[in-house]
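[Solved] Which block belongs to which protein?

Original post:
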Amino acid sequence: MKINKKDRLEKKCNVCKEIKELKEFNKSVISPDKHSYTCRYCMVNLRLKSRYNLTREEVDNLYITQEGKCCICNEFFLRKSLVVDHNHKTGITRGLLCSPCNRGIGLLKDDKEIILSAVKYLNKHT
């Protein structure tokens, strides 16, 4: 960590090797300066790669292909509000969903029969 001429705290990311403002790093209790060693941008890239085998560019392309809409409710969302949905058994990415829709299918165990049963139930009681 160093202080530049404008009195801003800066740090070098251990992944991209760029010097960035300290606010670009998450808080961390293990680092002497109380900020992580990896900037937020690189952290997101690492997480996408390890969890979904996707790059940020691939996720951005999904967003463009979906026209910024959740694949289930078809509502428009900012990119940062959509999450990557994937098949938990195969690991294959299905698309980008809003958090409520992603949680909904997760709570219904990603099971088509349960989801269809829920649709029948809602049709019966409307």
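(Second protein starts here: sequence line, then its structure tokens.)
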Amino acid sequence: EYLTFNNRKVTFEYIMIKDVNDNEKCAKELSILLKGLNCYVNLIPYNEVDEHGYRSVDYKSAMVFYDKKTDVR
């Protein structure tokens, strides 16, 4: 609705967590979800906090994710 109203590009922030949402399946799902929208996706590596046990994705894995995300037609 927002895009229809003002036709401005929307930015989505995607926090990448190693072995949680950094895989090919997630990349394809994200791409399908946003397909056709005037948007930009900012891939953000998770900022590690020892108390939670989650880990940040490395740069190489983030770029593989990015390539998969942009490969869906």
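Accepted answer:
You had them paired correctly. Confirming on the second one: The chain has three helices and two strands.
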